[in-house]
């Protein structure tokens, strides 16, 4: 829940009553505890946004004037967080920061805290502000060695170790890396009362490249919300989905879900659950790379999922050499494109294809085998990375067996490649599962599975040799 504080009807944040725990009486007349209880009763877990490095409340400032920073002229110092900025070296202010977050966590019952104004962006944020010599001279204790970290530590102590702490605009070089579970690494995907536009999507991708190497290692990366409504063309919506979900970043939806068309809701579904991805990059990337590769490794199989991003307006031919992915350039690889649902055939050494302007193509790359093998799934953009749980070929029986996680009343289509000399004889699944197999071009077989319950289901594909 954002902008819940008193005087938060309109920006800027510096006007909000950020430190008194007084909610906006018009929006939340029953208080924030009641709201958390109502959210939990619906089966969700409540989360709260805070911006506690300052306040816009004159009354709170006057009641605790010694807790705030003042310039040589005696006037209060302002920042993005408030017209009145806290003194991080004042012990009573640190105790207050700890206590308001304890109340929100333990008495109100919030389980997720997005705490704004951290290290990653802008000199107006207090991590940078507190390090300026002229500001340190205004501290109660100018010799304090860790003013910003004192605040971050108080937040964690207040909410408790069992709560999720997202450092909004957190950075891997800041003290929040030792305390936070997650970091909002991206800029705002929208501006007030405006839908996202291409520059916003480009910024989200650029921020992803810059900090993705720390994702799931230092903390979980939040590139800001995934937005896929009709204000974007379908190609741009697919691009946004791939940027957020392929690297295994946190996924928040910023759309009004009830208003999304089925094809747009499908994009969100294909981004969930978040895949457990560990990045191999060891450093930030500052260029807009057109090729992103995810190596999926499971006990039963491994494959590459490769995104070809066209950051330009006009269609472009994009591709990669297989040895750039660490693959054998002399071997054959079967390639399937996810967003258009098209088999690209068997390729060797290199793959190229046209990609529309401001669009993306998402490829599953499997080493071609001499027996039938898995090719792709439409359930998730990792094309099997989160839903496929086992797979085994029995050469004596000519059967391919496996298990896949399904979602109640939502079909999943698995695709398999049948090399020359093989044809599908039958497709079977567990009891109560609808199973349909349809041949497609290029020797591909699509197997559609539908379950009346969310569960892991077994399937068996029997093949005959021509």
Write a structural description.
With 466 residues, the chain is α+β, with helices and mostly antiparallel strands. It contains 9 helices and 22 strands. The chain has helices at residues 32-41, 58-63, 91-107, 126-129, 133-136, 147-159, 198-211, 234-245, 262-269, and strands at residues 47-50, 54-55, 84-85, 112-116, 164-168, 182-184, 220-222, 291-298, 301-310, 316-321, 332-337, 342-348, 350-355, 359-367, 373-377, 388-394, 399-406, 412-417, 422-429, 434-440, 444-450, 455-465. A 5-stranded parallel beta sheet has the order 1-4-5-6-7, covered by helices on one side. Strand 6 (182-184), helix 7 (198-211) and strand 7 (220-222) form a beta-alpha-beta unit.
How many beta strands in the DSSP annotation? 22
Strand order of the largest sheet: 1-4-5-6-7
Which overall shape is indicated by the principal axes computed on the Cα atoms? Answer: elongated
Give me the CATH architecture of the largest domain, please. Answer: Alpha-Beta Barrel
CATH superfamily assignment of the largest domain? Aldolase class I
Mean pLDDT: 95
SSE-based structural type: alpha+beta
Weakly predicted, low-confidence segments: none
How far apart the termini lie comes to 61 Å
Could you describe the largest sheet, including whether it forms a barrel?
Answer: 5 strands, parallel
**H/I helix tally:** 9
CATH class of the largest domain: Alpha Beta
The total domain count is 3
CATH topology of the largest domain: TIM Barrel
Radius of gyration: 26 Å
Q: Fraction of residues in helices?
A: 10-25%
How much of the polypeptide forms β-strand, as a percent range? Answer: 25-35%
